[in-house]
Amino acid sequence: xxxxxxxxxxxxxxxxTKNKLDIVIRKGRIEKILPPESFNPASDIDLKVIDAxxxxxxxxxxxxxxxxxxxxxxxxxxxxxxxxxxxxxxxxAVSCMPNTTPINDSRSVTEFIxxxxxxxxxxRVYPVAAISRGLKSESLTEFGDLKEAGAVAVSDDGRPxxxxxLMRRAIEYARxxxxxxxxxxxxxxxxxxxxxHEGTVSTRLGLKGIPxxxxxxxxxxxxxxxxxxxxxxHISHISTEGSVKFIKQAKEExxxxxxxxxxxxxxxxxxxxxxxxxxxxxxxxxxxxxDVEAIKxxxxxxxxxxxxxxxxxxxxxxxxxxxxxxxxxxxxLETALPLTLALVREGVMDLPxxxxxxxxxxxxxxxxxxxxxxxxxxxxxxxxxxxNEYVIEGDGFRSKSHNSPFIGFKMKGKAILTMVGGRVVWExxxxxxxx
Length: 435
Fold this sequence. Notes:
By secondary structure, the protein is of the alpha/beta class. 30% of the residues lie in helices and 23% in strands. It has an 8-stranded parallel β-sheet with strand order 8-9-10-11-12-15-16-17, with helices on both faces.
């Protein structure tokens, strides 16, 4: 069968362009990219037509930072339900952090994740393996064995690598296997027992705070280690003005460092915690308005390379409790796209730059397929209605968990169709393709 996507504006995040083009797909790959209505199919072929008029067509979105909880906490999320949420959010691929139960520090866990992803048969799932055994910062895992099993990067996300010596050796070891290193930046001594950002709001609420320095100290360490080793380090979920400043300086000096932030860090600040809503509790915590503005500047100036969700599902057992006892983390796969598009309307980024941060840049950092629309490449595509307005409803999530601070928010912009390898894995009722 041939699929013809016609009438849409195609975003090329590599070139920064937006052009009205048609896309012809055969056997899971993009066969042709043509001027509008220039495709003349033979009358006897099996043809599916998708009318994308008034919409944009982008490379499939790639989220390089999710927690799917399987194995071990399937009551929060499984690889299948997480994949459903990703597809509904416009994501064709994700990379899963290693802090599962058991931890992904061995070949068997990596292979298990890939097998569950194959069984779900929706999106591309890329396992990220642990840097240290048991995430204990004591000894390194077998990077070569883990890469051979299918891991695309290493990280101790969920916890920092507390030993600077071990982190140095990890970066050097990763270089040998050409594995990306992803760092969770947190000084545990400074963040210990904190539950939100340390500032005026935490003082008013009587909650123990986490200072910005807890993140920034480790950001500086990773920059220095990247300089020392000459190998890139990717810094996860940055949230502070200082982190943006230090990463900008590092890039200006030519140090190999990349960074991501999450939509909640440019959409909310620490006042969201007023009322003790545990859905506003995450790590790093929501910061001050000046930090939110710094994150936006970092995105605008290219200091921050990637927007990733840090999708962290929890059940009511972990969230419907006192704020200081609640688990850190929120879901994000189904809200990331509209929150990012809000920045485009605000003028923080143009549309191709925003899509690059949600697709091409992630693929480039992880060295995985996707993030581009090109003849001969696999047809991983997302069709987006920029003008679709709706309200986030708690019972509308495809994720198994509903722990989102954005419930009740009015959104604009929605993934209408998600395609992986030429196969539609998500389609909204609002798109009615012809045949």
